[in-house]
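Renewal narrative, Specific Aim 1. Our central claim is that a sequence can be written position by position from structural information alone. The example that follows is taken directly from our test logs and has not been curated for this report. It begins with the structure tokens describing the chain, in the order in which they were read.
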């Protein structure tokens, strides 16, 4: 997501496919492998990890992230290279956020970006499949 200074903010998103509900998200200016590992731990506290994790092949998913996924007992499924349509539900949530909010709002920083994503998550989860 672009911000007022024309720098990019990156959004990490965990979406549960059973109800198409946003489980966890966070925003940062500079994602690292350690940061992504921390987000996974925060998304699944106290033995609540899901059985599978579908993820893309981004270079940020280094050895630390793969080890965190293994430690949580999650089986990871990688989508094909440059195939975002294989992760369509997440792509739809991100596209909706861009169209409904970010096309009309200027984001000034990480905290404000989190506020917009939090509002989107509440709205999205309210309308999730029941």
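The sequence written for that structure reads:
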């Amino acid at each position: 997501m672009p911000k007022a200074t024309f720098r990019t903010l990156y959004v990490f998103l965990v979406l549960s496919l059973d109800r198409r509900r946003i489980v966890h998200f966070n925003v940062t200016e500079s994602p690292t492998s350690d940061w992504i590992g921390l987000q996974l731990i925060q998304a699944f506290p106290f033995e609540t990890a899901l059985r599978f994790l579908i993820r893309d092949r981004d270079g940020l998913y280094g050895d630390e992230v793969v080890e965190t996924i293994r430690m949580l007992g999650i089986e990871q499924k990688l989508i094909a290279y440059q195939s975002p349509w294989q992760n369509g539900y997440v792509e739809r949530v991100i596209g909706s956020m861009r169209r409904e909010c970010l096309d009309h709002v200027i984001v000034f920083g990480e905290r404000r970006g989190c506020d917009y994503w939090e509002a989107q998550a509440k709205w999205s989860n309210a309308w999730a499949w029941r």
